[in-house]
Design goal:
The protein is an all-beta fold. The protein is built from no helices and 22 strands.
């Protein structure tokens, strides 16, 4: 097993007043040549957006974009005709394909919204753009990992144009558990949203991350009140 540790304070940080952004990989004005991507995972942004503020209309193409609100709600509008609010307990998936424009604003006037946004390189370019938004509340399984995204449209959760899987884990008690990779040639980027966990003798605390590869399974020791996001992606694509 090989791994790379990314502490929370090693991320890029930008404070625009209305937006406090944290970048696990090079993004916008922050560039780190050693932190451009982890396989097909290009972006993992941890954003805090002030009430009623947000991103005006902007374009994307040939990227799989996954948004996971952690606190609050986000108002979305796009060139495909969608206008929706995504809240904690939802995920949104956009396959930008041949190109879209969209805007994203905090839907609340009295509460900041906290969200994770991930971009993955697709395995098929120039597809017809698509939009999906689902609740993951019914998928949740206490003290174990549960799938929220995969390459397969008939699996639990949403799907994208990439051989990638995402799982969340919400732990209320000390738990020993194992994640088995869907493809042993993939890697897994483990992002600790809250709490504490130990992986391969590496302790992670809030917003730390560990990229793991050259293994077919990963063992976890997870503390109570912890939440993890697992992102399994091809390392070559």
């Amino acid at each position: 097993m090989k791994n790379v540790y990314h502490s929370a304070d090693s991320r890029g940080h930008q404070d625009h007043g209305w937006l406090k952004a944290n970048h696990s990989f090079s993004f916008a004005n922050w560039h780190n040549p050693d932190r451009v991507h982890f396989g097909a995972l290009r972006v993992l942004n941890d954003d805090f957006i002030a009430p009623a503020m947000g991103f005006g209309t902007h374009p994307h193409d040939n990227m799989e974009i996954i948004t996971i609100p952690l606190v609050g709600a986000l108002q979305h509008k796009d060139s495909m005709g969608h206008s929706a609010v995504i809240e904690e307990g939802d995920i949104q998936v956009i396959s930008a394909g041949t190109g879209i424009t969209h805007s994203e604003f905090n839907a609340k006037t009295d509460q900041q919204v906290e969200l994770l946004q991930l971009w993955l390189f697709p395995n098929t370019k120039n597809v017809t753009p698509r939009y999906d938004q689902i609740s993951i509340r019914d998928l949740k399984k206490e003290n174990q990992f549960y799938q929220i995204l995969s390459p397969n449209s008939n699996d639990a959760g949403s799907w994208i144009y990439q051989d990638a899987w995402m799982h969340l884990g919400d732990f209320s008690q000390n738990t020993s558990t194992t994640y088995t990779l869907n493809n042993k040639n993939n890697g897994v980027y483990v992002f600790l949203i809250e709490g504490e966990a130990v992986i391969n003798n590496q302790t992670l605390t809030r917003r730390d991350a560990l990229g793991v590869w050259d293994t077919d399974s990963i063992a976890f020791q997870v503390a109570p009140k912890s939440r993890l996001l697992l992102i399994e992606v091809p390392l070559s694509f």
